[in-house]
Amino acid sequence: MRVALAQTDCRLGDVDGNLADTERIIKDAASENADLVVFPELSLTGYALGQLADDISLWPDDPRLAALSRHGPDVVIGLLEDGRIRRHNSALYLSDGQIVHNHRKLYLPNYLIWEERKHSSPGSHMRAYDTGMGRFATLICNDAWQPMLPWLAAQDGAELLIVPTNSAAKLTAGSFDPAEYWHDLLTFTARMQQCWVVFVNRVGDEAGVRFWGGSRVIDPWGSAVATAPTWEESLLVVDIDPSAVRRRRREIPLLADARMGLLRRELERLSNESGAD
User: What is the span of the domain harbouring residue 61?
Assistant: First the structure.
């Protein structure tokens, strides 16, 4: 299986221009025999949605989106989804002109410069899904920082986690370095869930924030098999072997003893004690 990581910049609010760039990149990936092309979070709209006066959300069944996957490879594309009353930060998995899966970002950060809850509503489901190349799951940026979600995806049979991201460079004078955190997180996730991880971050400057790139593919042993450069656009094409997941999970069956009943009971207890819905 050949995956193309489209580490792109985009123009805030310029959906038509971003669609044109996206189509060109998909054609480039097709010329390298890619089976799947993954773009960053919100790659069709830009991130700083509060800077825009107009609504630039898209219907998932917009024919322009379906057309992106008619050049050969499957496509994962990021957009602000029009959900009628609500808007969602979504990533569509498209294949042969059809929507295979729509993941709506579940955990919307609301700290420092991130104010996603002002512009999007959280999704309500996390599901693995079947493709022509295997069983995948999508987690958008901050979703991957929630330890239970990669585990749930693996328990649902995911062999490859797709992580479209908008991660900015260091934002404070303290010790928090997003690039370092992502490195450790992706390594841990791939090792503990014993799966491939495809991380695609954007680059470029937007609304005073600079995005650092560094997209990569991590194998089920936690090793980075390929890494894109920082700060600049690139199309990184990587061959991966989905059967390595099954080999790794046989070697050390970390996921086999999930004890779902125990987890259900403890989650219900914690939910009742906290008063959370």
Answer: 2-274
